[in-house]
C-alpha cells in the first residue's frame, strides 16, 4: 500500500549540471557585462549577459511519459527553451541504482595537478546492454537511489536488480 500512498514522480530534475568553475566564470563575466551595460557599451554587454544567463539557467531534466511511451531527456534554458531528444521507453528493460564516480583534474601554475572526485549513486535505466543507458538522477546515498529505482521499476513494469 506504500507505493499507492506516495507514488513515484516520472520527472527527474538534476538541476544545473555544469561544473562549479564554469558557474564561477559565468557569474564573473555576467558582472563584467552588467558593468559594460552601465558604461555605455550596451550591445556587447547585453550579448554577454544574455549568453551567461543562458548558461546559468540551464537545467537537466528527464521525463518519462507513459501515455506516449517515451523518455524525454533534455536541457531547459531560461525556463522554457527545451533542447534534447525523445527515446522509446520500450528499449529499456531494467532499472537499478548504479555507483557513479565523477572526477575532474585541476592544474595549478606548477606542474602539480589535483583530482577532485565525487561519489554518487544514480538511478539508471538500460536495455540488453549498458551502452544505451539513461541516467535519470544522481543521489548521495545508495539507499535513496535504490528506493527510487524500486518504486520506478514497479510503476513502469521494469526489472529491478541491486
Describe this structure in words.
By secondary structure, the chain is α+β, with helices and mostly antiparallel strands. The chain folds into 2 domains: 78 residues, no CATH class; 71 residues. 33% of the residues lie in helices and 40% in strands. It has 4 helices and 8 strands; from the N terminus they run H-E-H-H-E-E-E-E-E-E-H-E. The strands form 2 sheets. The chain has a 4-stranded antiparallel sheet with strand order 1-2-3-4. A 4-stranded mixed sheet has the order 7-6-5-8. Strand 2 and strand 3 form a beta hairpin. Helix 2 packs antiparallel against helix 3. The radius of gyration is 20 Å and the shape is globular.
**Spatial strand arrangement across the major sheet:** 1-2-3-4
- State the low-pLDDT regions, or none: none
The averaged pLDDT comes out at 83
Radius of gyration: 20 Å
By secondary-structure content and strand pairing, the structural class works out as alpha+beta
Order of helices and strands: HEHHEEEEEEHE
Amino acid at each position: 500500500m506504500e507505493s499507492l500512498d506516495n507514488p513515484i514522480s516520472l520527472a527527474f530534475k538534476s538541476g544545473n549540471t555544469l561544473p562549479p568553475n564554469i558557474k564561477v566564470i559565468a557569474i564573473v563575466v555576467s558582472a563584467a557585462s552588467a558593468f559594460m551595460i552601465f558604461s555605455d557599451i550596451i550591445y556587447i554587454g547585453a550579448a554577454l549577459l544574455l549568453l551567461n544567463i543562458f548558461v546559468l539557467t540551464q537545467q537537466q531534466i528527464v521525463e518519462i511519459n507513459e501515455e506516449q511511451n517515451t523518455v524525454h531527456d533534455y536541457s531547459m534554458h531560461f525556463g522554457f527553451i527545451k533542447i534534447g531528444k525523445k527515446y522509446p521507453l520500450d528499449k529499456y528493460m531494467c532499472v537499478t541504482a548504479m555507483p557513479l564516480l565523477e572526477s575532474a583534474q585541476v592544474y595549478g601554475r606548477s606542474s602539480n595537478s589535483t583530482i577532485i572526485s565525487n561519489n554518487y549513486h544514480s538511478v539508471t535505466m538500460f536495455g540488453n546492454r549498458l551502452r544505451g543507458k539513461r541516467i535519470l538522477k544522481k543521489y548521495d546515498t545508495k539507499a535513496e537511489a535504490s528506493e527510487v529505482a524500486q518504486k520506478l521499476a514497479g510503476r513502469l513494469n521494469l526489472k529491478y536488480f541491486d
